[in-house]
Design brief:
The protein is built from 15 helices and 7 strands. By secondary structure, the protein is an alpha/beta fold.
């Protein structure tokens, strides 16, 4: 039996833990706001620097080594500030010229991401609309610089939101918009190192082995719950290829993987699985389960007809498996037997 003193002590401990958790949250929030404020101020300063340098370059005769002289002067008077190197001043000038084609002041979305991210974007992106897209995606997904570079290299701008789906007809407007933004088409599975004729099981095996890269390719918010997830329907067992929960959409997501071309019956089977998950796993506060069918190839008309009368939210996307060795190069490479003969020859010499 628990004593009164013990109960009082437990209550006090619980209250302390709750209070300290709230306090830590407030400190983190204040720290993040401070970091954001400092970052914005730095970028506003860089904007003014870029503007002044651009104007002086155009309207004065300071000579070809003008920026080098500016760098030396600033580093001499502000040795504690690292952003005044010749290289960084050139980057600041490039960044200012890039966005000043459209804006008089540093764009708000641009000012919300670190300078290193900004430098990366302007070196890889050639139009402002796409650059702003990557700024927003960085903020929404909390990407570090390496992740941002991977997403740019994988052409996230072109793939995001392109999946063929029925979200507009099956989800509330706000959730439909978020679900549409969440899906890509195509997904890039180049990190698996598999050739284009790989079978479903091999692809699934490698996706699970490389689950970190897989989650990165899927995007922010996906929590992996299981592979070949067992669902009992009647007296039969069914196995979902992969089951996820999306923390922002607040719903289960069933991913089915097909190694070949999309067939209309795939949509019907996925619809069946979504009904089962909604009935057996979905909680009161969860939104409707979403299905994603990943296939090697699809015909857009086939997909649109297949989804037209389905009332469960579903998206159909392609995936890419880049060949390890391009087909045109393969005939030029030696066979295994030729390599073995060459090895034996060298060993005998």
């Amino acid at each position: 039996m628990i004593s009164k003193n013990q109960k009082t002590k437990d209550t006090a401990t619980s209250e302390f833990l709750e209070w300290i958790t709230t306090l830590k949250s407030k400190i983190r929030s204040a720290r993040n706001k401070l970091a954001f404020s400092i970052n914005s101020q730095v970028l506003e300063l860089y904007w003014e620097l870029g503007k002044d340098i651009a104007e002086k370059q155009q309207n004065s005769s300071f000579g070809s080594n003008f920026i080098e002289q500016v760098a030396e002067e600033l580093k001499h008077d502000f040795p504690e500030i690292k952003g005044f190197s010749r290289r960084n001043l050139y980057a600041i000038l490039q960044w200012y010229k890039f966005y000043s084609e459209k804006y008089q002041f540093v764009p708000q979305v641009v000012a919300q991401i670190p300078w290193g991210h900004n430098r990366l974007i302007i070196t890889k992106i050639k139009n402002i609309e796409e650059a702003e897209f990557y700024c927003r995606a960085t903020i929404q997904n909390a990407w570090d610089r390496d992740t941002l570079e991977i997403q740019i290299d994988n052409k996230y701008y072109l793939t995001s939101g392109n999946s063929t789906h029925n979200f507009n007809n099956t989800l509330p407007a706000k959730q439909s918009e978020l679900a549409t933004q969440t899906l890509k088409d195509p997904y890039n599975f180049d990190f698996l190192g598999l050739e284009s004729d790989a079978l479903e099981k091999a692809i699934e095996d490698e996706l699970i082995k490389n689950v970190t890269e897989f989650l990165l390719e899927l995007g922010k918010g996906f929590a992996f719950l299981g592979r070949q997830y067992k669902i009992e329907i009647g007296e039969n067992d069914h196995f979902l290829d992969m089951l996820f929960y999306h923390v922002e959409l607040r719903c289960y997501i069933v991913i089915e993987l097909k190694a070949g071309k999309f067939l209309p019956e795939y949509a019907g089977k996925l619809n069946y699985y979504l009904s089962a998950v909604d009935s057996q796993l979905r909680k009161k506060d969860d939104n409707p389960t979403i299905g994603i069918l990943l296939c090697k190839k699809k015909n857009k008309i086939d997909v649109e007809y297949s989804l037209r009368d389905i009332h469960k939210p579903m998206g159909i996307s392609e995936y890419i498996l880049t060949d390890s060795i391009p087909d045109e190069i393969k005939p030029q490479l030696p066979s295994v037997e030729e390599l073995e003969r060459e090895l034996e020859k060298r060993q005998s010499e």
